[in-house]
Amino acid sequence: MTMDASEDFLRTYHDRIPGSMARGTLAHPTSDGRTSYEFLAGHVAGASRVLDLGCADGTLLALLARNGATRLAGVDLSESELALARERPELLDADLRLGRAQQLPFTDDSFHAVVSHMALMLMSDVEQVIAEAARVLEPGGRFAVAVGAGVVPGGWLDLFLSLARPVFTALPPDRRLPRMGDRRARSREGLIELLTPVGFDTVSFEEITLELDGTPEQMWEAAVPSYYDMAMLDDEQVTRLREQFIAEASAVPRIGGGSRILVATTRLRNPETTG
Ligand SMILES: C[S@@+](CC[C@H](N)C(=O)[O-])C[C@H]1O[C@@H](n2cnc3c(N)ncnc32)[C@H](O)[C@@H]1O
Questions:
Q1: Does the beta carbon of 6 lie inside 6 Å of ligand 1?
Q2: Is residue 161 part of a domain?
Q3: Rounded to 10 degrees, what is the CA torsion of 52, 57, 63, 68?
Q4: Using a 6 Å cutoff on CB, does residue 51 contact ligand 1?
Q5: Which residues of 131-169 are buried (b: 16+ CB within 10 A; e: fewer)?
Q6: In this structure, is the dihedral angle defined by the CA atoms of residues 48, 49, 55 and 57, taken in order, positive or negative?
Q7: Which of 107, 191, 245, 258 is least surrounded, with the fewest CB atoms within 10 Å of its CB?
């Protein structure tokens, strides 16, 4: 499997701490109490053959299995994430492949739905990923993705980023996070631009927020270390940033907020019904 620098980073990161993204995400439900996985799964209810792009430890796939999907498949760059997915009783029959979403190892028209949770916006050559999703979907098949869309202004994560960004950008070039993904995959306009040319229908959008609240120490433990850039800092930089964050966060009232997720859903046009 030939990978670019960002994929190499993602594979190494996830091989080292598999399951970490899902643990962080599950700990922060949306305002209506559902997790973002439950929210996304609701958009493909009734689909029995479903593929998850960037499935990691299989959190979303296991939920889809519990909701009644019978033929599940997933692809991910990290073998350690897939090993966790394979241990799930719901996924004993799932087709879990180590690989890149840009080159899906599945035949044309083989799925009723393709989903992806917090992974599409990290993928390079995203046009190719979307073309592959269209290829493996049957006509009329559903495409539902949740992508990161930034943080709630004025909340904990916004405060963290105002302190951390200057540290990240001051790193020498050989210690910076590789450029990751395509900005278009994080916005409504960008997703429409990517999805429409390959045969997807009108795209619907919803925005949800993973709520964060607690003490500054809890906020640091829960959310802040899940930023990939943090892996590029040395121990001293992490300690200094933590102290700064706790001091600044302790000086303001509890400010809540959290991370914003954009959910996009559409269908592959069916030439027989659209003419
Ligand atoms: C932020 S994690 C999200 C994992 C999982 N979907 C979740 O929400 O719990 C991103 C995942 O996408 C995978 N990934 C990133 N780029 C990929 C690509 N081009 N092909 C397959 N998997 C990819 C990473 O290995 C990682 O497991």
A1: no
A2: no
A3: 60
A4: no
A5: bbbbbbbeeebbbbbbbbbebbeebbbebbbebbeebbe
A6: positive
A7: 107
Cα of 39 from ligand 1 centre, angstroms: 18
The pLDDT score that the predictor gives to residue 274 is: 58
Assign residue 101 the CATH number of its domain.
3.40.50.150
Atom of ligand 1 nearest to the CA of 36: 8
List the domain range (segments joined by +) for residue 25: 5-151+179-211+257-268
Query: Is the minimum distance from the CB of 37 to ligand 1 under 6 angstroms?
Result: no
For residues 223-245, give the mean pLDDT.
93
Nearest residue (CA) to ligand 1, atom 27: 56
Cα within 13 Å of Cα(74), Cβ side: 30
pLDDT digits (tens, 9 = 90+) for 151-199: 999 999 999 999 999 999 999 999 999 999 999 999 999 999 999 999 9
The helix or strand, by DSSP H or E, that contains position 192, with its residue range, turns out to be helix 188-195
| 24 confidence band (pLDDT: 50, 70, 90) | confident
User: Which of 245, 238, 71 has the alpha carbon at shortest distance from 155?
Assistant: 245
119 lines ligand 1 (CB under 6 A): yes
